[in-house]
Amino acid sequence: MIKTTQETTDTLLPAELLAFLPCATPREWIDAALANPSLLLIDHAQCEKKAASTAMSLMYRYVEHPLLLTKMSQLAREELLHFEQVVKLMEGRGIAYRHITASRYATGLRDCIRREDPHRLVDVLIVGAFIEARSCERFACLIPHLDDELGKFYRGLVKSEGRHYEDYLMLARHYADEPLEARIAFFAERERALIEAPDPIFRFHSGLPIAA
User: Fold this and answer.
1) CB 49 within 8 A of CB 204
2) Which of 95, 108, 175, 193 lies in the 20 to 30 Å Cα band around 208?
3) CATH of the structural domain 28-209, one choice from 1.20.1260.10, 3.30.300.180, 1.10.10.10, 3.40.50.11600
């Protein structure tokens, strides 16, 4: 990966998204990503596929919510397109797509989701907003260090994933029967812990890398 532009996270991302996240990605994670480009892309592809699956799952579970159905249908299509684009980019670089274990990040957030609706749905949507916002932030952190092809691709993903973050948060507010600030703050602290704590496995959403 070759450093190209001097863009910063602040210039690539809206202030609202940066304020939503409880912390910045550690520099150590960026260094680990640049040292493991193949693993980064494989897990990125896996994340796009999982995001599409999550959207489809919501469509099947909550058929009575037309706004959610519309937004999740759009999101699923876009995430699958991103999956195809990542796999094609990997193929051009001689990187074979393969299954790898997932990071603790999404599971760590979803373990805190309440079990009964409508609270369950609201929590799922808040978690989705954090995952999409963190993805945007990590793309933005990497862009200044990437070659032109990958940097251009990730710059486009910042825009689309930013819309996904906005849609998840809008839906959470739409279906909530209580103010969301306390629940968002709860998941923000959980998200901070997952990002800043030492993590033995490097993945796109992993925490602070542990030196081998």
Assistant:
1) no
2) 95
3) 1.20.1260.10
